[in-house]
Write a structure and sequence with these properties.
By secondary structure, the chain is an alpha/beta fold. The chain is built from 14 helices and 15 strands.
Length: 399
């Protein structure tokens, strides 16, 4: 990896300006898991995606440079809160992006709300971010647990996989994903036979998988992500669970997960994604830029960081200031148009709505080249995949 990224990830700020400036910069931060189970799907790639957005914006903002800082929240809400508080109170950070791990995202969004600063969560998935914990300066990008449940859960039941048992990561994201998927499965006439919760960062899934296997459920729903999901899939293959007839549903699966697990073990799994690198010429070009620096194709979370940073910068420019109400009004009034989507809209509750995709992991004999892992089954309209705003529990609606 290039030395520029090594320097960036050590916490040194990159300032994008033609010459040194004495004015206070517009400052954005990327707060992600840089070293744990979500590092591949977010981490340094999210930081570089934010850097790409600043570069593509192509100019100073409000006559001042744009500065980018990053840090590792270690998947701990208290660490995330401490870092965010330091950024917001003492380092003049205006907006925080990424925020993988829903517990960390919820904590940081609340801090930013209290200070009139901005957050855009691309990697955390809890629907509470735009529900009961919504913020007038908070934005939720890329995906949430309701979208994942509607895409993957509904598709599985439609294929006759109508009895489920959940292996759930025991924190806000996993619980929300299980809850949303349960609602979709039961609404479509399916049945949930049970669940078991595991700590974040679990290495040994043997006892959990044996209980899921014993349930007799047609589907073992993995309400987890990153290393947890990868370990569960690998160990399920070792135990012969899928070869014995049960199916696995990766409710949040990224392309880096398929790469790590291999198509041989992941083949046939259905997933919901907001982005695929081989979708069109624009996505292929963007992914090639990203891969040149990072060494792998981007995940939808990383592309979501790019999209959210770029849209925020455009909104600040349109508002002509960093005044919260003006920036958010501008962000909602303009469409989200970039490599992630051409038809995105930001709602009053902070949810960014856009079309997503139902995909199936190809079998090894279908793979035609590096990272050629997905068969896109259909486009899922944004109004179908995300919770309708009239069902939102966000308290700021209608105020």
């Amino acid at each position: 990896m290039k030395n520029t990224m090594k320097t960036l990830l050590c916490g040194t700020a990159l300032t994008f300006a033609a010459a040194a400036a004495t004015a206070e910069p517009v400052k954005i931060g990327v707060l992600e898991d840089m070293s744990g189970i979500y590092a591949d799907l977010s981490g340094e790639g999210s930081v570089y995606a934010a850097q790409m957005a600043v570069e593509d914006f192509g100019k100073d903002l409000l006559g001042e440079p744009i500065e980018l800082v990053s840090a590792d929240h270690q998947n701990k809400a208290d660490v995330a809160s401490s870092l965010a508080r330091e950024w917001l109170d003492n380092e003049s950070v205006d907006a925080i992006f990424g925020l993988g791990n829903s517990a960390a995202a919820l904590a940081v969004q609340e801090l930013a709300k209290e200070r009139g600063k901005f957050t855009a969560v691309s990697t955390g998935g809890s629907t509470a971010l735009t529900g009961e914990a919504c913020s007038p300066t908070g934005m939720h990008w890329t995906y949430d647990t309701r979208a994942l449940a509607v895409g993957t859960g509904a598709a599985a039941v439609d294929e006759g996989l109508d009895t489920w048992y959940f292996l759930t990561a025991d924190y806000a994201f996993g619980q929300s994903l299980e809850e949303n998927t349960t609602a979709v499965v039961t609404d479509k006439g399916g049945e949930v036979l049970g669940n078991i919760r595991h700590p974040l960062g679990t290495n040994d899934f043997s006892s959990y998988l044996l209980q899921a296997q014993a349930s007799g459920a047609k589907v073992i729903g993995l309400a987890s992500a990153g290393g947890d999901m990868n370990n569960a899939v690998n160990q399920a293959a070792e135990f012969g669970i899928t070869s014995a007839g049960q199916s696995l549903a990766g409710l949040l699966m990224f392309i880096t997960d398929v790469h790590a697990i291999t198509p041989e073990k992941a083949q046939g799994m259905i997933l919901t994604t907001g982005y695929y690198w081989d979708r069109d010429d624009a996505s292929r070009e963007w992914a090639a830029r990203f891969e040149e620096e990072i060494g792998r194709k981007p995940t939808m979370a990383q592309v979501g960081v790019y999209s959210s940073v770029l849209h925020f910068l455009k909104a600040v420019e349109a508002a002509g200031s960093l005044e919260p109400e003006a920036v958010m009004e501008a962000a909602r009034s303009m469409p989200v148009e970039d490599v992630l989507t051409q038809n995105g809209t930001l709602r009053e509750d902070g949810r960014m709505v856009y079309d997503m995709y139902l995909a199936r992991v190809k079998s090894p004999d279908q793979v035609e080249g590096p990272w050629d892992y997905y068969e896109i089954l259909r486009t899922i309209p944004g109004d179908e995949v995300f919770l309708p705003i009239e069902e939102s529990t966000c308290p700021q609606l209608g105020q």
